[in-house]
Amino acid sequence: MEKIPILRMGHFLLVTIQVDLYDRLAVNLEADLVQMVNKTGARGVLIDISAVSIVDSFMGRIIGNIANMSKILDAETVVVGMQPAVAITLVELGLPLQGVFTALNVERGMELLRNRIDLDLNPEDDDDDAISDAD
Amino acid sequence: MMTTQLVTLTKDRMVVKLEQDVVPFRNRVKEHATKIGMGLVNQTKLITAASELSRNMLRYAGGGEVLIEVVSKGRENGIRLTFSDKGPGIEDIKKAMQDGYSTGKSLGLGLPGTKRLVSEFDIKSVPNQGTTVIILKWKNG
Amino acid sequence: MKADLVKTLQKKKKQILEIWMEKQLADAGLRDDLISNEELRIQSEELVQALVQSITEKNLGNVESSEFEPVYEILAGISLSRAKQGFSPRETGIYIFSLKDSLLQVIQEEMRDDPAAMYAETIRISKLVDSFGIATFETFIKGREEVIYRQTNEITEISTPVIRVWDGILALPIIGTLDSSRTQVVMENLLQEIVETGSSIAILDISGVPAVDSLVAQHLIKTVSATRLMGAECIISGIRPEIAQTVVHLGIDLSNITTKASLASALRHAFSQLHLEVRKKQKQQ
After folding, report:
1. Which pLDDT belongs to residue A72?
2. Quick one: three-class SS letters along chain A?
3. Least confident interval from A100-104, B136-140, C75-79
4. Last residue of some domain: C122, C153, C184?
5. How big is the A-C interface in CB pairs under 8 Å?
6. With an 8 Å Cβ cutoff, are C226 and A104 in contact?
7. In this predicted model, what pLDDT tens digit does every residue of A102-123 receive, in sequence order?
8. Which whole number is the average pLDDT over B77-99?
9. In the beta sheet, which residues pair with residue B14?
């Protein structure tokens, strides 16, 4: 049976979906990913869907599930590289994936995760400090 | 004298019986949509709608048949898909078409969302006999 | 007796055309700026020719007869070209109905001695030309609709420019009403540009949108949600006080969307999101 590979990159897990997912494959991915988060203690999950041309409500729900499950295991999920046509369709379908972080590409996704996790480590840091740091 | 009527240009039939049939079926729809020059966004909407409906058919009726037609009306071309199954049917179509009915975790119907993705949507269902859903997506609509 | 009419018309073809041309050229509303007299004559002659050729004793009472197809075709052609040339519907109508006058004039002259027949034939010819008139209007409107259709497409294309205001910041001023087909174009252009430029912030400026009702608000919310799914932030700017009022009165929830009064403040917000600072330069003494 086909499997979607899950790569470990430091504190993060990276999943690149390259094929059109049929249901069984998506369900397996959900299970594998949650297992991996638990096993590796990963703090973040990146799901790259830049090669995916269709996300229907089933796929959307799987992504939502992964995010919620990871959250319980203390890892943030970022969906990266969504195609414009897919984004428009999801919104029209009424599935805006609330609660899932998004980024333009893997690099930005990593950056986002790093910021999120840093913030978690130093909760007293607020936005103003972040700006003065940048100066 | 000058009424514009819907004309069917080509017909194609496909059986969706297994989960693995969904991806080839989507590809077939995509082929037809590409052939008539449908834009990427409308294509994606149509295929997503097709995916939703074929999934419903699998889940609630154990599969069924889909008729893929290229249709034309006046200056517009489009794709019409007819999903017919011999499943248990839908008791209350009105309820199934309500937004929110679909968001339940177990009920994956998503009919109102699917309707928003296409230009025309029609559903007929007889309890214990089956359900027929017809969707139509115009090339530019 | 009755068969005479068809023959008469065929015989008097030249005369009909002459009377018709005379009437058209004498009309105060003659648009010689839009069509030359020469062209008008060719057009009219073609129509008279087609008419007398397709008219028979049998079909005279039946305006739907397929034998009139060539006449309807010519009429459609004339009507479409006139719609595009900018003739008013009235002018095109007068064109067809002055043909009726000419036909009736010929009938009157020919059947002077038989008022009963003249009356019957007048009604039949009137009905026929009236039907031509209706067909002309139908195609005239169709021609106009085509013009509108083309212009609508052009407007949608030119009215949604996506501007790169800064590295990583896009702005999209929306001018005019935001309906669902326009929203689709706006979304597509914006999202495509986000991918191409790798921008993380998009500003949707609605100063040029005349009114925001719940439907327009919904379109805006959809655009913002789609932008978010791509991994970028969408700010809505250019919200006039009246719009803020209607939004609240209609009970539209925009709390999940970053809104700013002006494009300038949206830009300021974008800068701070990207940790950028715009400062006045110290004066050099």
Report:
1. 92
2. CCCCCEEEECCEEEEECCCCCCHHHHHHHHHHHHHHHHHHCCCEEEEECCCCCCCCHHHHHHHHHHHHHHHHCCCEEEEECCCHHHHHHHHHHCCCCCCCEEECCHHHHHHHHHHHHHHHHCCCCCHHHHHHHHC
3. C75-79
4. C153
5. 59
6. no
7. 999 999 999 999 988 875 655 5
8. 85
9. B66
Of C192, C231, C277, the CB nearest to A135: C277
Domain assignments of chain B as residue spans, ordered by start: 9-138
A125 interaction partners in chain C (CB closer than 8 Å): none
- Is the CB of A90 inside 8 Å of chain C's CB atoms? yes
For the domain that residue C173 is a member of, what is the CATH number? Answer: 3.30.750.24
Instruction: Report residue B97 CA to chain centroid gap.
Output: 14
Option in A80, A96, A135 nearest C225 (CB): A96
Could you tell me the pLDDT band of residue A125, with boundaries at 50, 70 and 90?
Answer: very low
Say which CATH architecture domain B9-138 belongs to: 2-Layer Sandwich (3.30)
Return the higher-pLDDT residue of B109 and C132.
C132
| Domain carrying residue C229 | 163-273
Segment among C107-121, C227-241, C254-268 with least mean pLDDT: C107-121
Q: Same domain for C146 and C207?
A: no
Measure in Å the smallest separation between the Cα of A16 and chain B Cα atoms.
19
CB contact under 8 A, A84 and C194: yes
Q: Directed axis angle between helix C13-26 and helix C3-11, to 10°?
A: 70
Give the three-class secondary structure for C197.
helix
Predicted confidence at residue A134, as pLDDT, reads: 40
Between A41-50, B74-83, B100-109, C77-86, the lowest mean confidence (pLDDT) is in B100-109
User: Are C226 and A90 inside 8 Å of each other by CB?
Assistant: yes
Q: Is the pLDDT of residue C58 over 70?
A: yes
CATH number at residue C15: 1.10.490.130
